[in-house]
Amino acid sequence: MDKNEIKEIILGMGAKARASAHALAVLDAETKNQILRSMAAGLREHEAAILAANALDITAGESNGLTAAMLDRLRLDSARVDAIAKGVEEVAELPDRIGEVIDCWTRPNDIEFEQVRVPIGVIGIIYESRPNVTSDAAVLCLKSGNATILRGGSEAIHSNKAIAAALQVGGEKAGLPQDAIQLIPFTDRESVSVMSGMDQWLDVIIPRGGKGLIEAVVSQARMPVIKHYDGICHTYVDKLADLEMAVSVVDDAKTHKPGVCNAMETLLVHRDVAAEFLPMIAAVFSTKGVEMRGDASTVAILGDLAVAATPEDWDAEYLDMIVAIKVVDEMVAAIDHINIHSSRHSECIVTEDKSRAESFMARVDSACLFHNVSTRFADGGEFGFGAEIGISTDKLHARGPMALKELTSYQYRIRGNGQTRTKCATT
Predict the structure, then answer these.
(1) Domain boundaries, position 355
(2) What is the DSSP string of 11-73?
(3) Is residue 16 located within the same domain as residue 72?
């Protein structure tokens, strides 16, 4: 298929999505919840087709040399399909944010103002690998009244098609507008370029994947982009930390699930406790197979347990059982290091001194800041938001876990009884 054909198809999908978005915007909460429950039923009813499609992706992935970890993220079975369906049902139980009055006031001229939460409109989502993202993205957009155009990666193309079809067929039984959920059926790179340029149809685009994908979207996008490039997350162990607690928090942040964006990549330790704390955490890391790359002070304390870090290690997102470790003279040095090297995702301070924790939080410029809590809690579900569509490290519109509220905009609704500027001007 040539570039012109790809462009024509995707632009046509955009026009259909816009029409569907207008229909979605007026659906009441109960109708949307009924649609979501019907979509969950559709996933279960089409389980055999989804698993057959997934088998094709697994076979292709094995032939293409995907790692065991990548294959595991890609693989579906009955339990995982049911978990995806349960996730849809959980979204149905979440409060509906559309129509929520954010603020209201009355002016001296008796004009009434309301700031009301509304859908964004049409959301484009470009993502890689995991087929469950197809469902997560589609249902969160639906619950927030948005139409969505999805473009998944080549590794999961068959699974994505099957899941999207099951969601659409299931949802239509309960009144899902046609073309509310559309999946681009091919994975040519040209599709990313077309989506990034179709600002007449897409109100926002959300890339989820590696840094290369995100940079490609950002460089071409003609509409707002919600993104995060990396998850270079830090934990700082303060001189007033409970060291036993610090071991637990640091261990969880690094080893619980090292291949995700909220895993700790760099450990900073105050010099006053380094000689005591580093051997404690090194004993845990060594048992679990974590490679430790340290500055000169760290290597001096840990000896053969650590290797010398390079300048590149302070800017690395390993997504693996590797950690960079640095000893700092004071908290301000930790803050400076984080503000220089962080990806603005999630950072933690472990300390028993609340005033020092508050100072750390006021000075560090990241989306999520934790005091005595593992960075692994940087997650929409853990925040109590329900499902999330990703973590944003941007500052405008959405920051941190992106759940239902972050998939909305707002409008002003003004009511009066015939007021005009010539009769009751305020300026």
Answers:
(1) 233-377
(2) HHHHHHHHHHHHHHTT--HHHHHHHHHHHHHHHHHTHHHHHHHHHHHHHHHHHTT--HHHHHH
(3) yes
Token readout for 310 is 């390079």
Whether residues 365 and 403 share a domain: the answer is no
Q: Hey, what are 224's tokens? A: 């707002």
- What is the pTM (predicted TM-score) of this model? 0.85
Whether 246 and 269 map to the same domain: the answer is yes
Q: Are 230 and 251 in contact (CB under 8 A)?
A: no
Sequence length of the chain is: 427
Is 386 contained in some domain? no
Q: Alpha-carbon distance 9 to 416, whole Å? A: 45
Do 192 and 219 belong together in one domain?
Answer: yes
In a domain, 12, yes or no: yes
The pLDDT averaged over each successive group of 10 residues in the chain (427 residues) is 89 96 95 97 97 97 88 93 94 94 96 97 90 92 96 94 95 95 90 94 90 88 87 97 98 94 97 98 97 98 97 95 98 98 96 98 96 94 81 86 91 95 68
Closest CA to 84 of 121, 137, 129, 120: 137
- Do 204 and 264 lie in one domain? The reply is no
